[in-house]
Amino acid sequence: MSESIRVPSPAQPLVDPFGRSITYLRVSVTDRCDFRCVYCMSEDMTFLPKKDLLTLEELDRLCSAFVRQGVRKLRITGGEPLVRRDIMTLFANLSRHLQSGALEELTLTTNGSQLARYAADLAACGVKRINVSLDTLDPDKFKAITRRGDLGVVLKGVEAAQKAGIAVKVNAVALKGVNEDEVERMINWAHAGGMDMTFIEVMPMGDIEPDRFDQYWPLKQLRARLMETYTLEDIPYRTGGPARYVRVKETGGRIGFITPLTHNFCESCNRVRVTCTGTLYMCLGQEDAADLRAPLRASESDEPLDAAIAAAIARKPKGHDFIIDRETSRPAVGRHMSVTGG
Ligand code: SAM
Ligand code: SF4
């Protein structure tokens, strides 16, 4: 651990104007990725110059400032977080907050391509649960959706994570006409392997080549379909996120539904997101943001950073207003999901 690593002392907890405590931070550590999923990126993305990115030390300072102000759950995401060079240094340093008890959970969302390599290191850093994004179990479809991924490599990564003692949740974006015919197979596979399976509605973020309306499959329809095969029991299980869960009587496993478009979950929002350049977004579906890189770099002291965070939380909006229909298949916000990390 380097000398500049700070241990937080408790400051004011973060509460927004609507009385919601901000206890969950998602940090994108890179905008780069080894995949180009069709709903997430365009084929030829221009990535940020490396000099614009926060260094791993700055990311640590930033995360630690949030932990000091009451954040209990930290999710590392991207782009693909595991393609950032030396990313395990960040995990190793952040794990001190788990050891001190300041942080309840350190986790990540990954496409799984590098998991076989890093699973044991992640487990050693105190990572206990991860989300792996996987939209299909068909190798050809997988290649088509990700434009370059190898399903076999991801499945080996999932295996490695489980072997290392990390619980895996599988996240799939529900894509009309793409994985529609596969959802039962995916559920059976995930549940047989002891994994929860969560479906996400495609969100209107960033310009991409395909039309959003063509991809959009409302989870209400997916759920109705599943009820033809399974007995779904509503359960109060929560993981601190917006997913609503059911238990499948036949498999004993859980299915989660994340429905930003058909069900508004903003009332209980406890989270904010930081990009790899230190831009804080108070809401996934709004453009308003605060620059944290300038205060980070302005001073050795964390005071300007703490003040900038508090000022930003004081203007967290009430909610978002995503819609997708034929008239509004344009993005609701211009940035891609890989910028804020979902
Ligand atoms: N690369 C990692 C991964 O794929 O898990 C982490 C970043 S990725 C942006 C996080 C999640 O956002 C993934 O589960 C992905 O499927 C989801 N995602 C990306 N674009 C989306 C969109 N337009 N609508 C809904 N989910 C999206
Ligand atoms: Fe990469 Fe994740 Fe976006 Fe796919 S969803 S292109 S894996 S960042």
UniProtKB/TrEMBL annotation:
UniProt name for this protein: GTP 3',8-cyclase
Aminoacyl-tRNA synthetase among keywords: no
Residues the record lists as binding S-adenosyl-L-methionine: 39, 79, 133, 203
Recorded name of the encoding gene: moaA
CC cofactor: [4Fe-4S] cluster
Cofactor note: Binds 2 [4Fe-4S] clusters. Binds 1 [4Fe-4S] cluster coordinated with 3 cysteines and an exchangeable S-adenosyl-L-methionine and 1 [4Fe-4S] cluster coordinated with 3 cysteines and the GTP-derived substrate.
Sequence positions that bind GTP: 26, 75, 109, 169, 271-273
Catalytic reaction list: GTP + AH2 + S-adenosyl-L-methionine = (8S)-3',8-cyclo-7,8-dihydroguanosine 5'-triphosphate + 5'-deoxyadenosine + L-methionine + A + H(+)
SUPFAM superfamilies reported for this sequence: Radical SAM enzymes
